[in-house]
Design a protein that fits this description.
Blueprint: H1 19-28, E1 39-43, H2 47-64, E2 68-72, H3 75-85, E3 94-99, H4 104-108, H5 121-125, H6 129-134, E4 136-137, E5 140-141, E6 143-149, E7 152-156, H7 167-177, E8 183-185, H8 192-201, E9 205-209, E10 215-221, H9 225-239, H10 250-258, E11 262-267, H11 272-277, E12 282-285, E13 299-307, H12 314-324, H13 327-337, E14 340-341, H14 344-349, H15 354-362, E15 367-368, H16 379-391, H17 397-409
Parallel strand pairs: 1-2, 1-3, 8-11, 13-15
Antiparallel strand pairs: 3-13, 4-5, 6-13, 6-14, 7-11, 7-12, 9-10
Helix pairs in contact: 2-13, 8-9, 16-17
Length: 417
């Protein structure tokens, strides 16, 4: 999984919270938190995102007299430590920066608290539908969304005269810009994380859903007619339009962009620091829609704040989780570390940052990576299928996707064209 929490150069955050905002936060927080014993936070954040978290913890401590210790750990260490130590009182009270596709084992292991009663209707209303679903698992809400990240169209504005208004126009413009060692549009098409946007936009999806919206892990729609159409569009980029260079991977394509030889790419906020360091002027925006107006919809990650159900001070832990996910706190995280807020209201506060706002707009239609354990069985088969599809002009797209679907679910998928 791709994630780089320290995405952009630090920005100066606003000093403190307004009196009105603080009163609103105090009214929102749960009453009765004990003040004597401190809280511990385990986080995946580093760099400027970690600095934001420590600053928020200090402000929370000053407001409530509740000491907060912030400890940074790798995601795997957090998961293992929570599983083995939580019931014995040895794990953190609060976990920060956990992606929505990485918490299901903790939920199944009984480590996480149900936070459904803490998430107010106002807070949830500020989230996209997909962000609201991100930490809902087996009917229970286990986390409060804090930030989102995923790929968008990144344009070198020195090379692109105007932003394409539609996907066909993007392809046509990219063909014009390709030649003489330069490329108009390319991305890591063999990586399912990125290419899923094509399969999803044309009508496919990873797993089917019930009428109530619950994921059905035993039914994949990655070999459906829509998915096949999307994969054929990917193949066309390479063999019909000559846009995806042969033998290129993420690292080599990234170098092309940094060298000023790639006009447009499809990448995430983790790519921006190096682009800025290279002095390349960019615009970040959603992939333009299909000819019929269908918006592009790819993957996104949603990072959140989760609670240890064995915390000795669950009320204070819940109060801290709420403090960290307020609109002002999310906006401060965006300004300081460049992370895109999960809250639409917070995103509105940082709309003056064109890069953050661009990713925010691109991810408005994105799909959170399914949070079920079965998602782990998807990546390998789909990467292999894409490799087969993009290897030859004569590749059988439908057959490659059917093979992947059988590997994912262990059963024969429905027929595709």
């Amino acid at each position: 999984m791709i994630r780089t929490p320290d995405t952009f150069a630090p920005r100066r955050r606003r000093r403190g919270r307004s009196t009105l905002t603080l009163l609103v936060v105090l009214l929102w927080l749960l009453p009765g938190a004990a003040l004597a014993q401190g809280l511990t936070v385990w986080t995946t954040y580093q760099g400027s995102a970690l600095a934001w978290l420590r600053s928020e913890a200090t402000t929370y401590q000053q407001a409530f007299g509740k000491p907060v210790e912030v400890i940074t750990r790798k995601l795997g260490e957090i998961k293992q430590g929570a599983m083995t130590e939580a019931a014995k009182g040895g794990a953190a009270d609060v976990f920060v920066g956990i992606p929505q596709d990485q918490f299901s084992a903790l939920a199944d292991g009984g480590v996480l608290a149900d936070v459904g009663s803490f998430a107010t209707a106002h807070y949830l209303s500020q989230l996209s539908d997909q962000a609201q679903r991100a930490f809902r698992y087996r009917g229970v809400l286990y986390g409060l969304p804090l930030s989102v990240q995923g790929p968008a169209l990144i344009v070198n504005t020195d090379l692109v005269p105007r932003v394409p208004a539609s996907y066909p126009e993007l392809v046509s413009m990219a063909e014009t810009l390709t030649g003489g060692g330069r490329y108009g549009f390319a991305f890591d098409a063999g990586n399912f994380y990125y290419s899923y946007a094509w399969l999803r936009t044309f009508g496919g999806t990873v797993f089917a859903r019930t009428a109530s919206g619950a994921i059905e892990p035993g039914r994949t729609e990655l070999a459906s007619p829509g998915a096949v159409a999307g994969a054929r569009a990917l193949k066309a980029l390479r063999f019909d339009h000559g846009l995806i260079p042969d033998g290129q991977d993420y690292a080599s394509l990234r170098k092309l962009f940094l060298d000023g030889r790639l006009a447009m790419t499809f990448d995430g906020p983790w790519a921006v620091p190096a682009i800025r360091a290279a002095g390349i002027p960019i615009a970040v925006l959603p992939m333009p829609p299909l000819a019929d107006g269908t918006p592009f919809r790819g993957f996104m990650n949603v990072d959140g704040v989760l609670l240890n159900r064995y915390s000795e001070d669950p009320v204070a832990a819940a109060n801290l989780a709420k403090w960290l996910t307020t609109t002002d706190a999310q906006a401060a995280l965006a300004r300081r570390a460049g992370l895109v807020p999960a809250s639409n209201a917070a995103l509105g506060q940082v709309r003056d940052d064109a890069v953050v706002a661009g990713f925010g707009a691109a991810l408005a239609n994105a799909q959170a990576i399914p949070n079920v354990p079965e998602m782990g069985a998807v990546w390998g088969p789909m990467d292999r299928a894409l490799g087969t599809i993009l290897a030859s002009k004569d590749s059988d797209v439908a057959a490659a996707l059917r093979t992947a679907a059988r590997s994912i679910t262990g059963s024969t998928p429905s027929a595709s064209p």
